[in-house]
Design a protein that fits this description.
293 residues; alpha/beta; Rossmann fold; six-stranded parallel beta sheet; three-stranded parallel beta sheet; 10 helices; globular
């Protein structure tokens, strides 16, 4: 069994990005600039955005954090997005989800300029990705594919079961896994909360990507020997004995599933750090595209 260390790989990617930024500085070229919109004071969102801002500092990016009250109107948020779309100093920006219930997330994400959509959530980027055209790939699936590539894990012809059909992880990773390329060419089954025979599917799977959001859903009796397990789940579970009052759990019962796995990602320290690294990669890509356009 080998641990897929997302923390280590993400640091390698950040170092490569830092070197690329250094070269841009030497040539007098624009330094990548990433902005983040944070609405409200959700604890998890504050943690994620803080991590993204620190990562920008590590690689030499400019970063801007735009904090807005949770009471902001949908129209006011749309006006702020229009402002960012027209800001030539910005290479990319993200709108941290979830948003307050009175705001239509779909309407907000549709308003983001696809050329600055470094999260890869806009339909035009999703469509271009599905057609194997240049696009911003959603950061988490992008990170998973990069993790497989850098570990030289061959998935060609293997059966991959993706659990979860979100537009952010499940659907895009199911498309990327099946596309031509390396890694790629897997045969993919997309399962979800309404799938009636998940255990039968996972027991036959060579690769399992779980993005369901149910702590320790995947047990040892649901997988076969030698399986490759990618755990995208990250849930705060209350734990009075822990100093923070909670512990982070993935979708996979790690200790028991790891014993049967050939490769497995831990939580935390697996897919999470890769997501941030690929967000930075997309921002650098956006900056480079603007330089040649």
């Amino acid at each position: 069994m080998e641990i897929l260390d997302g923390k280590k790989i993400s640091q390698e990617i950040k170092e490569e990005i830092k070197q690329a930024v250094g070269l841009r500085k030497e040539k007098g070229q624009k330094i990548p600039h990433l902005a983040a919109i944070l609405v409200g004071n959700d604890g998890a969102s504050l943690t994620y955005v803080g991590s993204k801002v620190r990562s920008c500092e590590q690689v030499g990016f400019k970063s801007t954090l735009i904090r807005l009250e949770s009471s902001i109107t949908e129209q006011a948020l749309l006006s702020k997005i229009k402002e960012l779309n027209n800001d030539d100093t910005l290479d990319g920006y993200i709108v941290q989800l979830p948003l307050p219930k009175h705001i239509d997330e779909e309407k907000i994400l549709l308003a983001v300029d696809p050329k600055k959509d470094v999260d890869g959530f806009h339909p035009s980027n999703f469509g271009r990705m599905a057609l194997e055209m240049d696009s911003f790939i959603p950061a988490t699936p992008f990170g998973i594919m990069e993790m497989l590539r850098r570990n030289e894990i061959d998935i060609s012809g293997k059966h991959c079961v993706v659990i979860g059909r979100s537009h952010i992880v499940g659907r895009p990773i199911s498309i990327l896994m099946s596309q031509k390329g390396k890694p790629g060419n897997a045969t993919v089954t997309l399962a979800h909360s309404r799938t009636q025979n998940i255990k039968e599917l996972t027991q036959k799977a060579d690769i399992i990507v779980s993005a369901l959001g149910i702590p320790e859903f995947l047990k040892a009796d649901m997988v076969k020997e030698g399986v490759i397990v990618i755990d995208v789940g990250i849930t705060r579970v209350s734990d009075a004995s822990h100093p923070k009052g909670y512990v982070i759990k993935g979708d996979v019962a790690f200790d028991e599933v790891a014993k049967k796995s050939s490769y497995i990602t831990p939580v935390p320290g697996g897919v999470g750090p890769m997501t941030i690294a690929m967000l930075l990669q997309n921002t650098l890509l956006s900056c480079e595209r603007k330089s040649v356009s």
